[in-house]
Amino acid sequence: MPHTHAVWLYPRPDFQRELLRWDPLSGSGWEIAFDDDDVGVTNLWYQPFRRIPKEKTRSINVPFVYQSPASGIDEHEAHAIVWYQANIFAPTPYPPYVLPGRNLLRFGAVDYEMTVWLGGKYLGKHRGGHVPFEFDISYMADEREPTLLSIRVWDASTDLTQPRGKQYWGPKPEGIFYTPSTGIWQQVWIERVPDVCIADSSHGTVIRSHDIETGEIGAEIAVDGRRKGTFQIILKASLAGVDVATSEPAEVNAETGIAKLKMCLRLSDEQQSKLQQDFTEAHPLSDKTCWHNKVALWSPEHPILYDLTIILHRDKDDVLDKIKTTVGMRSLSWNNNDGTFRLNNQPYFQALVLDQGYWPSTLMTPPTGESCRDDILLAKKMGFNGCRKHQKVEDPLFLYWADKLGYLVWGEMANAYEFSNQYVDRFDQEWKEAVRRDINHPCIVAWTPINETWGYKNLANSPEEQNHIKALYHTTKTLDPTRPINDNCGWEHVCTDLTTFHDYNDGPQLADICSNMERILDKKAGKGMFVGGASHSQGAPVICTEFGGVNIAAKEGEKAVENSWGYTTASDAQDLLERVRRLMLGVVQGGHCCGFVYTQLTDIEQETNGLYTFDRKEKLPADEVRKIIEEAKRIYFEKLGAS
After folding, report:
1. Any idea which architecture 199-327 has in CATH?
2. What is the pTM of this model?
3. Cα–chain-centroid distance for residue 549?
4. Residue spans of beta strands (DSSP E) within 143-280
5. Element (H or E) spanning 450, and its range?
6. pLDDT tens digit sequence for 215-246
7. CATH topology of domain 349-642
8. CATH match for 15-193 among 3.60.10.10, 2.60.120.260, 2.30.30.100, 3.40.50.410
9. What is the pLDDT of residues 140-157, one digit of tens each?
10. What's the half-sphere exposure (Cβ side, CA atoms, 13 Å) at 501?
11. Whole-number Å distance between alpha carbons of 7 and 255
């Protein structure tokens, strides 16, 4: 059955082969079946000569989950086991990858645990609903004849130790919880790669680009495949078309498959003189916010990216693989004596919005390749310089656009709701995979593994639960020492770089709380701000990471969203605007908070407290919200200067 699909962007445009050969498997050429009695494996549904009985199958439009309208099914009943089947073809090889070469079957994300067969042969398993994985299907699929791909997905809606984020476990979404997403919800594709190839960040490639003083990047480039012989890596960097640097060749370690390199991205006077006028007008060489020691800096105001080419070769003339990616040079500091968060050595006010990444017809899946870009532009239009991506490891396209457009992102994990040894095992695995996937994006400026003690019902008194959050902090710090970690966003911090709190009081009450550090550090939602002997570190940034959440009451005769929900309710759009003003200014007027996260960007299903409707229409004039945010920034910097 052929796959019909829209024009899809390559799923990892931030890490793309120069000679890219990939085939998207997204589209309508898939069948799905519910296996409530769990008979599929026993009855050999994965075998081409058996398959799933035709009367049980329905057509589905992948990568949209069956609970979404875009899937073509739009049914909300819970099914713990679902099967997918499709006939696939291997990519047609062409020079220079005729031989040798490999075919990789790649999944962006499948929720939650899956088993895969190809042509009736077992490929493997993967667990974790928000992270990518792949299988080598070389010699298992043919470019001329179809091969049956069978996938069994397990996603139990009632298992509360399973990381699920905002996906509700009840029969109908309510309050702050939404329709669940079962199965394939990000792209599926086949990619032709060299027999020995450069691996992406999920498989070990890490590029550190935070040293703006020297302009030096440190790279660990991972190589995947059947390595035999000696291989070398070279890096080449350019800026706006001007060649900046070429590294010395570094040999790939035969045991680890890693090559370690360093390269300086500081421009010489001659290189700066070659930059085009439109580039230097947008990023003046005299502007300290976008240049430091002749190093071009990345920020929301100046999202300057160096183009980086990674070249794998066996000898000087034998190039095996070539990757195009980008690097944003920017530094972060959060342990300053004045309680500031600093970007590129300068105090920076983070005006963030809570972004949960849901759409009306597609739920967690971006409807198009441009949808993530469009949401970022909507937020920037209102004056926000970033988001806390909430309870979701977002599609990599979002981070690609955040890098390009200049948009700060706090990386977060989908939480579970019960603590157990099984939960610890599940969460640790998926969180590490999420951090590795996203570690090279300059837009990521903080990590948040846990939100509001979700899953930790006895955190204040349980050494076991406290130790797990400590372990998450130190594991994350080991993977990435360059970013701050917000261990448990909102309250009950155990081991954290940031003091974050949530408060959904209305404007006057919130202003009163934010005017005094003792009130900020007082209990929130009945829980202490710090537990297990932890306390606020003098000089640590203090950020109100959730507040607002105001919806608008339906007018008489107006059709209201069923069970419309907000933390507080405005009478109309003008009242909402005034409440937003009082809330945002109230957070900063006390002089203690160096940032905020307003709840939230858009309405989602019954939670109607967004600044935009669910279908992305303005509730308030964007320019008016922008003015409020600019005023909040002005107040913050005035208070900072006065102190």
Report:
1. Sandwich (2.60)
2. 0.96
3. 22
4. 147-154, 183-184, 188-193, 196-198, 206-211, 216-225, 232-239, 242-246, 250-251, 258-264
5. strand 450-451
6. 999 999 999 988 778 899 999 999 999 999 99
7. TIM Barrel (3.20.20)
8. 2.60.120.260
9. 877 778 899 999 999 998
10. 28
11. 41
